[in-house]
Amino acid sequence: MSRTPGEPRERTLGAVPRPRSSRTSAPGRARGRTAGTGRPLLPSLVALAAVAALCLLGLVFLAARFAGTVRAFFGEAALALVLAAATLVLGYWVLRQIRPVREPDTAASLTAAAFGLTAAAGAAVVANGALGSLWAAVLGLDLAGVWGPSLTAPLNEELLKLAGIVLVAVAFPYALRVPVDGFVLGALVGLGFEVTENAVSAMNAVVEAGGVDGAAAVVRSAAVRVALTGLASHWTMSAVAGTAVGLLAASAWRPGARRAAGAAGLVLLAMAMHGLLDSPLPGGAAGTAVKIAVNFLTAAAVYLVVRHTHRRRVRASLAAQGEDLGMRRSDAEALATRRGRRSALRRIARPERPAVQERQGAMLATAEDHAAGSAS
Q: Could you tell me the end-to-end alpha-carbon distance of the chain, in angstroms, rounded to an integer?
């Protein structure tokens, strides 16, 4: 870049002066107060209290509902819980890593996973039973046995998980501001639900086997539900529905007709994905593979769109900030990725790295504020 006399010299990241602080804290830093007032947000506190109460109720219900099975098959139950915990930990790490720029807020992430794990899963057990009885009365036992799951799950499970995503968005408004936030936090709600469902399915497999070779039944159930259908299960559906919540949150919950229609379409898409996965058609191994591929690729397509949009907006803001600070455009835009920030830090003397990290964080916070504003 050419420089006229009197212009500031182009700077590398290590020489960046401290930018103006952003109004919004970085993801990962809990913040439950309104900007400028310092007072707690009443809707956030109410939503958080509701989440806590619902999670507690769900946990108590699930414990009471399956206590007898656990006592009868304690070893198998312990194995199922170990496998479920491993799935939860791995899935939690992977889904948080897919958020572009930075990981999502930790408190919001844990709350989302906990809601799916307890509140949504517990309520779904009750709702599944009620809807199953309804379909049996309306369709007859034979048809209800075949089509009941594909009719039930999209209605109750997707709406229950969606309610959890909305509560998380209200409880942590700084953590869910754009569609990609909704995708990731929605996926975490779905992950929690999926983990509980996997554990329940594993214990059902033990009971159906009469307790014979129960450990093998648990492992087989987990292998199928994690390694096979897990690629296209609850996390994908809730991620798509969560994107709808992100669209609404980006407009301060006052969407125009076009945005509202887009959000409704995403919710219906998530329900259709669930109906497809539980449908008896197409049947057989090939049919199952098709359903898994359709759901996974649908979620991936939604993710790629919202990821690209968010990164483009963040990079534009970083480039503008960098220009004001005398940075090279490439250095400023590189801060949009974790790898770019690590690479920049490696070029800085070790004693100066903490200060540079702080400057990076301030620039990123401003950039994500800009991205959220652009999404409204």
A: 34
Q: How far is CA 274 from CA 98, 113, 179, 186, in A?
A: 22, 19, 21, 15
Cα angle 217-123-64, degrees, rounded to a multiple of 5 = 60
What number of helices (H) and strands (E) belong to the chain?
A: 13, 0
240 alpha-carbon distance from chain centroid: 9
Contact present, 315 and 337 (Cβ < 8 Å): no
Of 336, 368, 327, 361, which is closest to residue 14 (Cα–Cα)? 327
Positive or negative: CA dihedral 248, 252, 254, 257? negative
pLDDT given for residue 40 in this prediction: 53
CB-based contacts of 334-343 (< 8 A; 24+ apart in sequence): 335/13, 335/360, 335/363, 335/364, 335/367, 336/100, 336/101, 336/311, 336/364, 336/367, 337/100, 337/101, 338/102
Is the distance from CB of 27 to CB of 175 less than 8 angstroms? yes
Global confidence as pTM = 0.89
The residues pairing with 348 across neighbouring beta strands, listed in sequence order, are: none
Q: Is 221 helix (H, G, I), strand (E, B) or coil?
A: helix
Quick one: average pLDDT of 225-252? 96
What six digits make up the tokens of 108? Answer: 């919001």
Residue 126 to residue 230: CA distance in whole angstroms: 23
Instruction: Assign 33 to helix, strand or coil.
Output: strand
Note the Cα 205 to chain centre separation in Å: 29
Residues 186-201: tens digit of each pLDDT: 999 999 999 999 999 9
Nearest to 276 by CA among 158, 157, 154: 154
**Residue 196 · residue 84 · CB < 8 Å:** yes
| Integer Cα distance of 372 and 360 in angstroms | 18
Task: Average the pLDDT over 104-113 and give the result.
Answer: 98
C-alpha distances out from residue 261 to 53, 169, 267, 307, Å: 32, 19, 10, 21
The 8-class DSSP code of residue 328 comes to -
Mention every residue, 6+ apart, whose C-beta is less than 8 A from residue 118. Answer: 54, 55, 56, 58, 59, 62, 192, 196
164 sits in which H/E element:
helix 141-171
* Rounded CA separation 81/196 (Å): 9
